[in-house]
TrEMBL record:
Region of interest called Disordered, as start-end residue ranges on this chain: 1-36
Superkingdom to which the source organism belongs: Bacteria
Bias (Polar residues): 1-10
Name of the protein in question: Methyltransferase domain-containing protein
Chain ranges of the Methyltransferase type domain: 81-179
Organism of origin: Streptomyces beihaiensis
Length: 306
């Protein structure tokens, strides 16, 4: 696995972003189409996301996604856009691998954290990353099109209607290019509460197919099959999907640093295989845009070969 850079890297990320200065006022952005539960709870979301992204559990997610992308990306520098990637961690990992990354995010707090994180990198890495404030649905107008890779990680869960965002992703990617989507797995929603012995919470989630209660802000979830079908209708065909955080999502304590590499390898191997990947908290779907748009068939359903 490229990395995993050990959990000492988590400490480095925390140091780079923990003392973020208050950013200057930004121009007012256009409203996003449809209900967006990130903007409805922006301050709470940003604080919670920064805490999560700088944890070992968050770093496991970044390492697994980067490994999957490295596995399928061309072995040359690529043009990448990361929609909703305001924290900047994914952009930094891709930039370290030689790719040029544009981060587009509407959240000023996260963009400031990304600014601090990028500034902590070596100059040749930092200059490969650029930050733009704006709404993902408007990305083609804000950053252009023709990207080799379009990332949209932990974004769809905040959108009541992901359609406009998915349309933007399909427009951003070049023919033959890749779209990478990471989101919450609806088929495993009750597992976290159940493994943490929150029996009532798990039961409610299981019966309602959505997380309820004071510990969760409103979100939505998808399945690989349903998301794959939606992308297919846009001419973006699923190539493969991975489970992300099968064994570590429910843990309230962080593992010791010396166990981080083993944890990442375990999660990687489980995320490749059925039935394990079906129980992951998140799923990572990678799809490729066809030369022409239009329905091309059903998304990938059989298990991947390890």
């Amino acid at each position: 696995m490229p990395g995993p850079e050990s959990s000492t890297e988590v400490s480095r990320v925390r140091a780079a972003t923990g003392s973020a200065k208050k950013p200057p006022p930004a121009p007012r952005s256009a409203a996003r189409p449809g209900e967006n539960t990130w903007t409805d709870f922006a301050d709470a979301r940003a604080r919670a996301y920064l805490d999560h992204a700088q944890s070992v559990r968050g770093e496991v997610r970044f390492q697994l996604v980067t490994r999957a992308l490295t596995r399928i990306l061309p072995r040359r520098p690529c043009r990448v856009v990361d929609i909703g990637g305001g924290f900047g961690r994914q952009a930094v990992l891709l930039a370290r691998a030689g790719h040029s990354v544009v981060v587009l995010d509407n959240d000023q707090t996260l963009l400031q954290a990304a600014t601090d994180q990028v500034a902590a990198e070596e100059p040749e890495v930092a200059r490969r990353v650029s930050l733009v404030q704006g709404a993902g649905e408007q990305a083609p107008e804000l950053v252009g099109t023709g990207f080799d890779l379009v990332c949209c990680h932990s974004v769809l869960l905040y959108l009541a209607d992901p359609g406009p965002m998915l349309n933007a992703l399909a427009r951003l990617v070049r023919p033959g290019g890749l779209v990478s989507v990471l989101t919450v797995n609806r088929d495993s929603l009750a597992i976290r509460d159940g493994l943490q012995a929150d029996w009532r919470g798990a039961l409610t989630t299981l019966l309602e197919s959505s997380e309820r209660g004071g510990r969760y802000l409103p979100t939505r979830a998808d399945t690989p099959l349903e998301l794959g079908r939606r992308l297919t209708r846009l001419g973006v065909l699923p190539v493969e999907w991975y489970g992300v955080r099968v064994f570590s999502d429910h843990r309230l304590s962080e593992p010791p640093p010396e166990e981080f590499a083993d944890l990442c390898e375990l999660e990687w191997q489980a995320g490749l295989r059925d039935p394990y990947r079906q129980f992951a908290r998140l799923f990572h779907l990678v799809a490729r845009r066809e030369p022409e748009s239009g329905l091309r068939g059903e998304p990938l359903e059989p298990p991947l070969a390890p």
